[in-house]
């Protein structure tokens, strides 16, 4: 690869400025108040892909936010890489916890990013990581080094469950045909410990509603005599884990893939400091399923967590009241072979069955998806590994992640394609949290590494 570092050095400021412009648009897909901004962002992505050298770029309308689709074909006999990413972002809330406004990007140094990091919602997840691919394409096209065909599919609904992407993929199999899917929407272990994500967890997300009496009641006149929906809900939730932190839903573990001792020993070789982990989160101890390490708990094991819980009086002061209703949002992270719709059904049946007398329970599924494991004995994985080795000077470690990108399993089903997850974010980049950021070094390293993937993949495919 000629001059990739030179090209990046020469264009560094512009690469940063362009990303900063993109981060200024608040493309929050969850909140309809931002709908025009989400649409404006799709237009900005289209322009960026055109400028980078795509032959054609279209805005594909869906029942929700549009999908930006671009391609550059140099020779139909050469392999095709399909890049997927998302231009929508999480809501910035709680805004008051940001040190600078979420949509006014600033570059500041941090302990893990001495070269500076861009602070803004979406900096790492996923605008910054998606844009590395746009700039890598620009480099390859402008210097005449694009070795294969490329397609881009950038969606605007990832953070709300990609509901319309599945339909788009199923209806456009031919258009999206490819030899490998490439995604940068995950992380790596550390800047001096490169890793490639080889697993994503599945997800089942549900909302529960517990109803007691037909109206809010005086807690003195009725307390102790009728079921209190909040008491009932918290008891029910507490019963979902046993004393070893195993999940108690019957059948929940039936299809869980058990890894061999060899595989677990291999995984345990990845550098990890429990002390640093606890310190970074200001916790005195970790907690989780008995018999598994922290890294296993958040990658190869399924989990159940309450994401939000509410009901009754939460305003200032005190109000003596027994609420009529109580609610919670619950997510279950799943591992390979667990089917998210089956798990959703198991949850629903079990949760309804444990309701005490005097309340009724409603379980509403939100969204979900299957987990995914990338095989490492493929040309694509070897090409990615060589790319990292070239630019980091070290062989990357394969590592399963705890997060979810449900569309990846769907790609395999609909397009029969494998996915390579080249993530350049760090766990400390605070995605979905206040003060999300993305290292300037990581951004530029991604732009440098991606062209090598194209190069080795095309070469090894021959
Ligand atoms: N990019 C993340 C997923 C991710 C982050 C995977 C880091 C691995 C490492 C993605 O945008 C995301 O937030 N996914 C959601 C699921 C989605 C259905 C809302 C998640 O994992 O909670
Ligand atoms: Mn993402
Ligand atoms: Mn996300």
Automatic annotation (TrEMBL):
Gene3D superfamilies according to UniProt: 3.30.70.360, Zn peptidases
Domain Peptidase M20 dimerisation: from-to ranges: 199-358
Pfam families, per database record: M20_dimer, Peptidase_M20
SUPFAM superfamilies reported in the protein's UniProt record: Bacterial exopeptidase dimerisation domain, Zn-dependent exopeptidases
KW Cell cycle (keyword) present: no
Keyword field contains Metal-binding: yes
InterPro entries xrefs: Bact_exopeptidase_dim_dom, Cyt/Met_Dipeptidase, Peptidase_M20, Peptidase_M20_dimer
Source species, domain of life: Bacteria
The entry's keywords: Hydrolase, Metal-binding, Protease
CDD domains associated with the record: M20_dipept_like
Name the record gives this protein: Acetylornithine deacetylase/Succinyl-diaminopimelate desuccinylase
Organism, scientific name: Zobellia uliginosa
Lineage, top ranks: Bacteria, Pseudomonadati, Bacteroidota, Flavobacteriia, Flavobacteriales
